[in-house]
Design goal:
alpha/beta, Aminopeptidase, 8 strands, globular
Length: 241
C-alpha cells in the first residue's frame, strides 16, 4: 500500500513539475526597453574656443541614422535651442537622431557688432569646432544624412529655407524634397556660405548628404516651433538612398 501511494505521489510531483515548466516557457518575457537618449561630451579642452557635446539615440534606435548640428554660429542660438527642445520630445519617429551641440565660449559677440560674416571671430570659432570635432564624428558614424541648423537676420529673398551648398547630389535632392513637404519652408540657395567648407561641403564630398536649415532669427517663437516641427517630420519621412 505504501509503495502504491509513493508511486502516485511521485507521478503527481512529475506532473506538477512538467506543468510548471510549461507555464514558464509559455509566459511572454517582457520586451527589452529601448535604449534611451544620452548626452556625451566630445570636446571640453581649455585650449579650444568652446565645447562640443552630442545627444545620441533620439527616436527609433533601429532606424536610419541622421545627424543634426547646432551652434556653428553662436548668435543663432534661439533656433538651435528650439530644435534641441523639440526633437527629443517627439514620439513616433522612424529614424534615429543625434544632435551635435557646439557651444562657442570665446568671442561670441552680438548682432550689430560691426563684423561681417568673414571676419566675425565667434562664427569662425564655431566653424573651427565643427570641422575639428563634429565633421569627423559624422563622417565615421554611419549617418545617412546631416542637417546643419542656422538662422538669419532677413537679408535673403526667403527667411525660412533649406539648401545644400553643392548644387547637385543627394544633399540638394533631400533639401528640395523637404521643402516640397513643408508649407512654410522654401528651397532657396544663397550665393555663398561661410560655414560650408567646415562641415556641409566636406560631408557631401565624402559621401554623407548634408544640407542647411535656415530660420529667421527674429521670428516669433511660435513660428520657430512650427517650422522646426515641419522640418523634423519632413526629414523623418525621407526615403534615404
Amino acid at each position: 500500500m505504501i509503495k502504491k501511494e509513493y508511486i502516485i505521489i511521485s507521478a503527481l510531483l512529475i506532473v506538477i513539475i512538467i506543468f510548471s515548466m510549461l507555464i514558464m516557457f509559455t509566459i511572454e518575457k517582457p520586451a527589452e526597453s529601448p535604449q534611451m537618449p544620452y548626452r556625451e561630451t566630445l570636446a571640453n579642452n581649455s585650449n579650444d574656443s568652446g565645447t562640443v557635446e552630442v545627444i545620441r539615440n533620439i527616436g527609433n534606435p533601429n532606424g536610419e541614422k541622421v545627424a543634426y548640428v547646432v551652434g556653428v554660429h553662436p548668435l543663432e542660438h534661439l533656433t538651435h535651442e528650439t530644435l534641441v527642445r523639440m526633437l527629443p520630445e517627439m514620439s513616433g519617429l522612424n529614424k534615429s537622431y543625434d544632435i551635435y551641440l557646439i557651444n562657442v565660449t570665446d568671442d561670441v559677440g552680438a548682432y550689430g557688432s560691426g563684423y561681417d560674416d568673414d571676419t566675425d571671430p565667434g562664427r569662425q570659432n564655431g566653424q573651427n569646432l565643427a570641422y575639428r570635432y563634429v565633421y569627423p564624428e559624422i563622417l565615421k558614424g554611419n549617418y545617412r544624412l546631416a542637417i546643419d541648423v542656422h538662422s538669419n537676420i532677413g537679408a535673403y529673398e526667403f527667411k525660412t529655407f533649406v539648401f545644400s551648398p553643392l548644387k547637385e547630389g543627394l544633399g540638394t535632392e533631400y533639401a528640395n524634397e523637404v521643402a516640397m513637404n513643408c508649407p512654410d519652408i522654401a528651397s532657396y540657395s544663397p550665393d555663398s556660405t561661410t560655414s560650408g567648407p567646415y562641415l556641409t561641403i566636406p560631408l557631401n564630398e565624402n559621401g554623407i548628404p548634408a544640407f542647411y536649415f535656415e530660420e529667421y532669427s527674429f521670428a516669433p517663437q511660435d513660428d520657430k516651433d512650427l517650422h522646426i516641427n515641419e522640418l523634423i517630420w519632413a526629414v523623418d519621412g525621407l526615403n534615404l538612398s
